[in-house]
Amino acid sequence: MSAQTIENTEAASGRSGDETPVLEVRDLHVTFRGLGGNADVNAVRGVSYSVHRGEVLGIVGESGSGKSVSSMAAMGLLPDHAVITGSVKLHGEELLGLDDREMATRRGKVISMVFQDPLSGLTPVYTVGDQLAEAVLVHNPGAGKAQARERAVRLLDLVGIPNPEGRYRSFPHEFSGGMRQRVMIAMAMANDPDVIICDEPTTALDVTIQAQILDLLRTAREETGAAIVMITHDLGVVAGFVDRMLVMYAGRPVEMGTVDEIYYGSRMPYTMGLLGAVPRMDLERQGALVPIKGTPPSLSALPPGCPFAPRCPIVRPECSLAEPDLLPVGEQPSEAQIRAAREAGAPAEAAGVSDTGVQRVACIRSGEIADNAWTAQDIYPIPEIPEVPAAKTRREDRPEMLRVESLIKHHALTKGAVFKRRVGTVYAVDGIDFDIREGETLALVGESGCGKSTTLMEIMGLEKPQGGSVSVMGRDTSGLGGADRFALRRDMQIVFQDPMSSLDPRMPVFDIIAEPLRTHRRPAAETTARVYELLDLVGLNTEHATRYPAEFSGGQRQRIGIARALALEPRLLVLDEPVSALDVSIQAGVVNLLEELQARLGLSYLFVAHDLSVVRHIADRVAVMYLGKIVEIGDTDAVYTRPAHPYTQALLSAIPIPDPEKERARTHIVLDGDLPSPANPPSGCRFRTRCQKFITLSEPEQERCMSIEPALEATNGGDQAAACHFAERQTVL
Amino acid sequence: MSTTETSTEAAKAPAVPPAPNRVKTIVRQLLGTPRVIIGLALLALLAVFAFTGPLMTGWEVGERDFTALLDEPSPEHWMGTNKTGQDVFTQATAGLQKSLLIGLLVALLSTGIAALVGAFAGYFGSITDRALMWIADLALVLPSFVILAILSKHFGDGGWFVLVILLAAFSWMVTSKMIRGMTISLREREYIHAARFMGVPSHKIILRHILPNMSSLLIADATIAVSTAIIGETSLSYFGFGVQPPDISLGVVIADGSKFANSSWWIFAFPTLLLVILVLAVNMIGDGLRDALDPQSKSRRS
How far is B189 from chain A (nearest CA, A)? Predict the structure, then answer.
């Protein structure tokens, strides 16, 4: 039945009528054969899509969903032991089965790729320009060196590398991450390809750089007219950048359609959960995030039927009978039909899978979801998060948990092996002030290299700082003796970013959680009881206690880290990017847990993050750091709705919102260049070199920015303060 | 939340042991591995062999049978005789007595010193690091052979324990540098920070987190050190500094036999076989220990 319908809809949609798609992938399967008795890994199971000229297709999925593997297969970049079946057509010509030499004439010329990691994408021993020129020469051997060089310089200019003539001779290590990614894009554009595949091109970059790169990719599309396949896990990037999208789960596309159809009318519980799990920067009171229970299945041991069934809130017994096909909404076979087919023993007929351009969903209840217009909030059980009891009293009346006053941490740059000379200073943290009250969350945000982690380490060390003071629970750390410091550690604990390295791999979970208790000499019986209580508190089971960290997923490991931090019943928890290494659906669960714990235990959080969306969701107050200084601090709502400092404005503006309509209507402030080196910060205001406001000022005003360092001054008569001579509260969201 | 609490409460009482004990688990796992059992059995067998072996034949240690010089294995001399007519079997098993002790103790000591010096230097850095590494460099450049030779003279006979100490004292340096490097990279791991921020004292962090995470390297190093020590002792003995006659060591027997390896194979083969079995046994125990300590190792996953 389905083949018939698809033909009909193809005719009806009429969008692909005369023009053949540039890249057409049909029923692609990739399997990695298991060695030594291990099961095969079915990385990709039946992916079909087509992209037309000038179109941007987004492929979205969590880690391990097969999104990268499917495009590597299309490029012919997979190792020989991968078994690939299906069809990949470039301009109607079959690519699968071509040998490596024939593929090489197409790679980089007709189809090219931008990789995630700009650090390893360029050869360190050749100059950037030579590598670019090589990309040009490889496909036009007759062009000649001079011509290739000229083209390379033009390309560098096109991707916004300042002084391209001079930078041609630079080596990759002399470029920052953002600039290297630009060069990678220039290389991908070098031969005017028809398809550019971008594999998480901005994941490794800071938000302000991400905005630059997305802008550049838009330029690249206009310049070359190429189709772009954008692979990402970031639903914000997808919203504003792509036309159509494909959601993948466990190696299979589970939903496909235009961006608007999927964002506003998703009919697949997985996509709905994913969209509900994203913290939103643009919403004032979002409520609890939608958590998707469990973890994605192993690709070598998939559950029978729908792979999402074990995690799905509206699962039916029929879901595990057969894997649903990707069909238009409302055309899924009924449950009775599935049961009948199952009893008849007929293998599920492979429906004609081709990309027809209409929204299609692989869920047998998609019709029901559409009819009832269910949203994620309707189908997922949303946890109730109680109010923080301390929030009732006024902030000034609550006891102070942590106060940092003009904290300074400078590292000396030295030269020489025997007699070390000081040749410079890295101003990692250069005088910052903030305080945290009971039951409150302060977020410290900023790009990498702004000094936020250094600040944390200084606070957690409980030593006398180089300059300024840190006081915890009203006690100044500089005057502490060893015993006092040890006692104070009970009240302040830390949760780290990387769930891989924050737990000792050689210790079972029980010992990991018991370590702080044993260190602080709690009786053995009390320790045991407390460990099981903590496991329960963070949502793990008792039998998990004897396992080792490697046996857990990222989200579970982060929960173990939280349990360890809570063991001594601290009153202040320092969270160092606790969710940035986790997938969206897992992240939501951890964020909810943190909020719940705060309410139940009356904790205060110092939350360090670069993800402003999570911060908006969890924090009461926010402090924005730039080059070792706080440039703006204040109540989260005030800062997000009316930021006063140009840097905050740019930062907020650079973050894509997972809402296509809002995202298209926004204008982004795109900052120039990269973060200056903290060893050599600009004079006066440190942000002036990249400031979008600085250029609009008159000369005497600019003089002021260059010579006088602005101090933090209140901007709205209340809690909000910004360090800018010309602070002006503006709405950017 | 209340429902889950009651359910685990109910499950906790009968099923869950009070607290899983890490040491007990490791010991139980060690004894559950066939390889470790075989290794331990071999080691015990060698020890028994070393003390009963010389008594089983009619020959005394060092006694010469002038009627059978360089004789092939025979009922009289089970493993043949060497060029002075000594019974190879008696010599080798008697030599094993000292070599077992020397090999195992030197390996344990030198790896222990290397681990502690390297880890402390790497963890504390700055002055501790420089002082400890200066000592290591010094030990490396000093002519260890000459020092061993001179010192061992002073301790006279029965000083085999001093010999063990001296051998260990000059064999830990290279490993300690390796350990130091690994410690420096481990030191920045987040779980080390976490332990420090919860107030765990530094020496405990080193013993509890850093050294267990390098156990694979340490075990491999100790295994190699066993055979190195046995052979190393030989060269000293050769010059008359190590184990002194009438005491004999396996190393000396092997060194003597090596000259005849091509012509009279039995003089070389038998004592070497003993050494191989010894190293094999240590290897098996080491392998088992490494697997028990490393939760990520293959054999654990089953």
Answer: 6
